[in-house]
Design a protein that fits this description.
alpha/beta; Rossmann fold; 10 strands; 9 helices; 2 domains; four-stranded parallel sheet; about 25% helix
């Protein structure tokens, strides 16, 4: 098993188990959140980092990594008809990038979003999302961290889980500590404040949904009415009408917190 720092290295075992338990041996990849679809799907290189510590290439290597895990794969952009490809797929893997770009492309094909939703919710097709693909698994993109670089016809997403997911969640900087060290303290909003604003717009009467702030290196596995955290780090769950969010560690069952269990 590749080390944790490689593509899907922190969750390869969970992904493998999930796909095998669903009966899938082949995965259909969706690269639409990035511009260069061929490169995204088939990039053979490992992730390289620049002197600032940031990745030089966001495309990852889904085809090669899935092969390492024992699964065949193809990309939806190679399919003659995306709807036929999805209707025949055993598992769908929606990759990361920009969620608004992803949603705009999904809605180019009438009926595709509804087909994905119905096949996943009926148990006929497994679903994996990464970054923007995880955000799109929820009911909408209202808690996305992506810039709206394009205009999709709606913010309504795939809706394969009955809540929202905000991936790459991180805690705000300690502004007071920064000021004590003589550093300038700006007033930029934190992720937590922006999620609170989502609740302000939909409370009361706006039907706010729970939000899972999934931390970097975390993975949320949803099977029926059970949602469990895996990976390296947990999540912070924000619930409508409640004061403070709740932190959960890896291994926690968050089903009740996200409304899967009443």
């Amino acid at each position: 098993m590749p080390e944790r720092s490689t593509y899907l290295g922190h969750c390869g075992d969970v992904v493998t188990s999930f796909l095998r338990n669903s009966g899938a041996s082949k995965v259909l990849f969706v690269p639409w959140a990035l511009k260069d679809w061929d490169k995204y799907f088939a990039n053979p290189a490992s992730i390289a980092y620049g002197p600032d510590g940031q990745p030089l290439d966001h495309t990852g290597r889904p085809q090669g990594r899935l092969r390492e895990l024992g699964f065949e794969s193809s990309s939806i952009h190679h399919a003659k008809d995306p709807l036929v490809a999805v209707s025949e797929a055993q598992a769908l893997f929606v990759g990361g990038g920009n969620g608004f770009r992803l949603l705009k492309e999904l809605y180019k094909y009438p009926g595709l979003v509804e087909l994905i939703r119905s096949r996943v919710l009926s148990g006929k097709m497994a679903f994996i999302g990464s970054s923007a693909g995880t955000n799109a698994a929820g009911q909408s993109l209202h808690v996305s961290i992506c810039m709206p670089i394009v205009k999709p016809p709606t913010f309504d997403a795939l809706g394969v889980v009955p809540f929202l997911v905000s991936p790459h969640y991180h805690d705000p900087e300690n502004k007071a500590a920064l000021k004590q060290h003589g550093m300038y303290v700006g007033m930029e909003e934190t992720r937590e404040q922006r999620i609170a604003q989502y609740f302000e717009e939909r409370d009361p009467g706006g039907h706010p949904l729970p939000v899972v702030g999934l931390r970097e290196g975390g993975l949320l596995e949803v099977l029926g009415n059970k949602a469990v955290l895996h990976g390296l780090r947990g999540a912070r769950v924000f619930a409508p009408m409640e004061g403070k969010p709740t932190d959960f560690n890896v291994g926690a069952d968050i089903s009740a917190a996200v409304g899967l269990k009443k």
